[in-house]
Amino acid sequence: MDGFKYKDGRLYAEDISIQSIIDKVGTPAYIYCKNTFLDHLKKIQQAYSEIDTTICYSVKACGNINILRHLAQMGSGFDIVSGGELFRVQQAGGDMSKVVYAGVGKTDAEIKNALDARIGYFNIESEAELENLIKIAKEKNTTAKAALRVNPDVDPKTHTFITTGKKESKFGVDIERAQKVFADYADNGSVKLCALHVHLGSGGNTIDPYVEALEKTANLVEKLRENGHTIEAVDLGGGYGADYETGYSPSAKEYAVGIVPIIKKLDVKLILEPGKSIAANAGILATQVQYIKKGGTKEFAIVDAGMNDLLRPPLYDAFHFIWPAKVEKNFVPEKRTKDLDISGCTKYDVVGPICEGSDFFAKNRLLPPLKRGDLLCIFTAGAYGHTMGSNYNARPMLPEILVDGDKFQVIRRRQTYEDLVAPEQI
Length: 426
Ligand SMILES: *Cc1c(COP(=O)(O)O)cnc(C)c1O
Hints:
Layout: E1 4-7, E2 10-13, E3 16-17, H1 18-25, E4 29-33, H2 34-47, E5 53-58, H3 65-73, E6 77-80, H4 83-91, E7 99-101, H5 108-117, E8 121-124, H6 127-139, E9 144-151, E10 173-174, H7 175-185, E11 191-197, H8 208-226, E12 233-235, H9 252-266, E13 269-272, H10 276-279, E14 283-295, E15 298-303, H11 312-316, E16 322-324, E17 346-351, E18 360-367, E19 375-378, E20 400-404, E21 407-412, H12 417-421
Parallel strand pairs: 4-20, 5-6, 5-13, 6-7, 7-8, 8-9, 9-10, 9-11, 11-12, 12-13, 15-17
Antiparallel strand pairs: 1-2, 2-3, 4-14, 14-15, 14-19, 16-19, 17-18, 20-21
Helix pairs in contact: 2-9, 5-6, 7-8, 8-9
The structure holds pyridoxal-5'-phosphate (PLP).
Pyridoxal-5'-phosphate is lined by residues 58, 60-61, 79, 81, 102, 199, 202, 237-240, 273-277, 383.
C-alpha cells in the first residue's frame, strides 16, 4: 500500500494531483509521500513490538535529510555505509546511538568521525578492518561497540549484483571463521565485539532465506556463548521485499512471524536495516514524453528523465511500473504488473535522452497511446532512485518533493547549471 492513487483518471500523491505539483516544479522530478514512509516504519515497529528491536533505516535507499528527520522523530535509527551518510544523519538530528555502520572499505577518517559521533555499532567486515578500528580507538583513547558481519552462505535468489550473503561475495567473514575472529580479537579493551551482523542483499521476496540465515546465526551465537563471549545483539540487515508489483512481496508482519521466535529464544536485541521496503513505493519519478518515434517495428517514447536520474533498469534489469498521470477511465490500472493487458494499449520502449544504449526504463511495455507532452510516472522509484543519480551528460540532479496530505514541500531544489560547475576552476 502507498499514497499514489488514481482518482477520476488522474494520479494523486496523497491528496494532491501529480499534475498540479509538476505545474509548479517542472519535470523530471521525484515525488514522495511522507505518510507512506512513516506507515512502513510504523508497520515494522508494530510487527516486532514484542521484542527489543532497533530499526535502522538504510540511508543509501533514499537519504534526503528532510525524510531522515521525519523517520528519526518516529524513533528510527540509521544504517550508514559512508562518512557522507553519517553527516546526513547528523544534519537530520538522528540519534547516534541508533546508528550502525557497514562497509568493506571504511577509511581512517571515516572511522575517526564515527568514533567521535559515538555511533551504536561498527559492522565489521574483516579482521584487517577490526584491527584498524581497535588501533584508532586506542589512539583516540575511546571505546566502541562492534558487530561482526558473517556470511551465512544463503542465496536470496535475486540478481547477482545485489546478492551479498553468499560465500563468494566480498562482504563479511565466513561463519566458520567467525569463531576464530572472536577468539583472536574479542578481548582487546577498546572495541567491544558483542554482536553479529548478517545482510543477505536486496530483493528477496520470500522469508525463507532470512529464517535460514538467522538459524545459522543463532547456532553461531550459542557456540560463541559457550566459549565465553557476550553476544547482546543480532543485526539481520535489510533487503526485505518491496512492492515493485502490487501484492508481490511479504509484509513486515510475515517476516516477523519467522524471525521473532528465534530472536526471543536467543534473548538478544534485534537490529533491522530496512531500506527499500520503507522507501521504494513511497516515491515516483515524474517525467514528460518529449517525442514519439518509430524505429523499424518498434515505437519509442522518449522522455526527459534518463538513466542518470534512475539507474535501476539498466543496472539491475529492474522492473518499474510506468503509467501516464492522466488517463481515460478504461485505462485506470488496477494493478502495477508487467503486462497489464488493457484493450487499446500499444507497446513502447520508454527511453531517456542519453547517448547510451542502456538508457531505458522499459522495453516492449504495453501503455495507453502516448503523445508528445504527456506526463508519465515511473512508480516505486523512492529507493535507489535519487541516491544513485549522477550528473552524467551534464544533467542537473532532480528536485525531490515531499507530499503530506494536501500540501507539498520542495525538500531538494533542482540543481542549476551554475551548481554543476561550482566546484570547478578555470
Ligand atoms: C543496502 C543495505 C541495506 C538495505 O537494503 P534494502 O534492500 O534497501 O532493504 C541494509 N544493510 C546493509 C548493510 C546494506 O548495505
